[in-house]
Structure formats: structure tokens, C-alpha cells
Design brief:
- The chain is an alpha/beta fold.
- Helix content is 30%, strand content 24%.
- It folds into two domains: 178 residues, HUPs (Rossmann fold, 3-Layer(aba) Sandwich), CATH 3.40.50; 140 residues, Rossmann fold.
- Strand 2 and strand 3 form a beta hairpin.
- Helix 3 crosses helix 4 and helix 5 packs parallel to helix 9.
- The longest helix has 23 residues.
Length: 343
């Protein structure tokens, strides 16, 4: 089966928006677009894939696919690709998408082009652009191997529009590995309610080491260790940032320095070793702008920076910059936003 395949990444039937962005990107390559939907009770996702542009859907529903497990998903993907020979396979640049793409590449004796921000057809090959050197440069490469395995950066290809009148052919396929042959088992999930996903957020408010720099905050008397006092101050600062984010319907991010210092969990980290994001608006509070952090957010549409240091590198990236104390600016901004939105 020639054409382009798109892996629909989902959790319990809730697809990542980047999956539908990938379908829209696949349409620009020409030829039929086939969506891959694996899981249990996910037939509704097949219909939604048609709405976003898929021409066909390969649907695998089995108890062994109810939870994402790399060996089950990658084995099925590789088996189908060997049988039907697609020209290219696109994946969202998510944790699951990158993992299954890498494992399938080994099975198919191919490679993976990661975190692509532009893609187009170049004769019989595919031309793709992706950041290199921590995002300082953009590299344009041509992929002639088939199938070409490519992961696409979320929000880099625009928001697709659904056409609910579209439909297509659903082909049901069997799982590749029986439940008894799988080496892993999902026991439970730990979820955090009410958090906006960094990967999907249109607006992100991030804090750095500067969030801890408020000597006016007095820790409780039982906290005597200086490091613990610093962490406590930073945590109060991130509560303030969270209030601003909530007022904007935004996600809360953080620099690696803030995460390493114990101010906020790793799940909030934006950067080369954290989440790579492309929001419409990125607000950096108390973030100096180290290369590692810039690599994760430099493709944001608009960057706003607040920092006491007028020479902070983040100002070179920001469209708008404010030199000042974030503990004075953020509460005032939050208040103004709440007043404006209440009207």
C-alpha cells in the first residue's frame, strides 16, 4: 500500500491534537493517507481520523492494546509496514510517538528523522526541516529511504480543521503479539487533574531560578534549613505563576534550573532535555535564557520575558521584554487580566 501512514497517538481514546496535525501534514505529500489506530474500544478515533483528512484507517482493537506498551504497538506497526510497504510513516513528537518510531525503525532497518517542523514532497523523496545544535540552526534534509519514519513537532504545522462529512474505509487488523507473550504489564496510572498539557498549550507561562528570589516571603518557623527555605519561596512563586496561568487558560512550564533545584516537578520542564513546545505565546518569568532552555521554546510564535537582569540572554529571543521584579509584575498582570476577562 503506497502513500503515507500516520500513527494516531492517544491515551484511552483521547488523541493528541498533534496526531491530527500529522494527518494534515501527510495530505501535503500527495497520495493516500492511512491513519493507524491501535487500542481497545477506539473505533470512534477511526471516524475522527477521517474528519481530519485520512483516506483509510487500519484499526487494531485487542485487549493486548488496551494500554500503550511499546513492544505490542511497535511489533504491530512493523508487521503491517513489512506487509504493505508505505512510502512514509509520520508520528507526533510525543514520548509514545518517539518510542514506537524508534523501535519500528530497528525492525524495518531504517532510521528516524525527529522533531520535524516543515515537510514537503521532493520528487520521489521527502524534504524535511528540523532544528539542530539546540535549535540554533535549521537543517533541511532529503529522505529517500522507504519507509521514511518522521516525527513531527506539535503545533508546528498549524491547527487542522475537521470536516465531519468525510468518511473512508476502515480495515481491521489483528494484534501482532498475544497478551501472554508480552513482557510488561500496566498496573496503574497516576494522573494530575486540571493541568493544561504543555505539548498542546497555546499559551505557556514558565518560571526559572528567579522565582525563588523574593526575600519578602517568610517561610514557616519549622523550616530552618536554608535550602528548604529557598525551595519554599520558589514554590510560593510558582503558585503565583499558576494563578496567572489559570487566568489565561495556560500551561505552567519551568526551566531546567528550576526543576533541578527542586522547585517544581520534571513534568513541567521546557528545554532540550524536557518538553519541546511551540505555543502562540510563551511568557518567561525569571528565566535567564540558557541555550538548553531556548532549544525547547524558541519556535514559540511570541515570546515575552520578565527578568531583573537587562543583559539576560532571554531578551535576545523575546519580542517583548520587561526589566523588573516578577513579584511586582506578575500579580499586577494577573489582576489586570482577571478584571479584563470579567467584563
Amino acid at each position: 500500500m503506497a502513500g503515507t501512514w500516520v500513527y494516531v497517538d492517544h491515551f484511552k481514546g483521547a488523541a493528541l491534537p498533534a496526531s491530527y496535525e500529522a494527518i494534515a501534514a501527510a495530505k501535503t505529500l500527495g497520495g493516500p493517507v492511512t491513519a493507524l489506530v491501535f487500542g481497545e474500544g477506539v473505533e470512534g478515533l477511526a471516524q475522527t481520523a477521517f474528519h481530519y483528512g485520512a483516506d483509510e484507517v487500519l484499526l487494531a482493537e485487542d485487549a493486548s492494546l488496551a494500554d500503550y506498551r511499546a513492544e505490542a504497538y511497535a511489533s504491530l506497526l512493523s508487521k503491517l509496514a513489512k506487509e504493505q510497504q508505505p512510502d512514509a510513516m509520520l508520528f507526533p513528537t510525543s514520548t509514545r510517538g518517539r518510542e514506537i518510531a524508534a523501535m519500528a525503525a530497528i525492525d524495518l532497518d531504517s532510521g528516524v528523522l525527529p522533531d520535524v517542523t516543515e515537510i514537503s514532497k521532493d520528487g520521489d523523496s521527502i524534504a524535511a526541516t528540523h532544528p539542530i545544535y539546540a535549535g540554533k540552526l535549521l537543517s533541511k534534509v532529503t529522505v529517500s529511504a522507504k519507509p521514511a519514519l518522521i516525527t513531527l513537532r506539535g503545533r508546528a504545522f498549524g491547527k487542522p480543521v475537521a470536516d465531519t462529512s468525510r468518511s473512508g474505509n476502515v480495515t481491521k487488523v489483528a494484534a501482532a503479539v498475544a497478551e501472554g507473550d508480552l513482557q510488561t504489564k500496566v498496573v496503574d496510572y497516576a494522573t494530575v487533574e486540571g493541568r493544561v498539557s504543555l505539548a498542546d498549550a497555546g499559551v505557556i507561562v514558565s518560571g526559572g531560578r528567579g522565582v525563588a528570589n523574593n526575600p519578602a516571603l517568610t517561610p514557616p518557623a519549622e523550616i530552618t534549613d536554608e535550602k528548604e527555605k529557598e525551595i519554599w519561596r520558589a514554590q510560593q512563586g510558582f503558585l503565583m505563576i499558576g494563578e496567572l496561568a489559570q487566568a489565561m487558560g495556560a500551561a505552567v512550564g519551568a526551566s531546567r534550573a528550576a526543576v533541578d533545584a527542586g522547585y517544581i516537578p520534571y513534568a513541567n520542564q521546557v528545554g532540550q532535555t524536557g518538553k519541546v513546545v511551540s505555543p502562540d505565546l510563551y511568557i518567561a518569568l525569571g528565566i535567564s535564557g540558557a541555550i538548553q532552555h531556548l532549544a525547547g521554546m524558541r519556535t514559540s510564535k511570541v515570546i515575552v520575558a520578565v527578568n531583573k537582569d537587562p543583559d539576560a540572554p532571554i531578551f535576545k529571543m523575546a519580542r517583548f521584554g520587561v526589566v523588573g521584579d516578577l513579584y511586582e509584575i506578575v500579580p499586577a498582570l494577573t489582576k489586570a487580566l482577571k478584571e479584563r476577562l470579567s467584563k
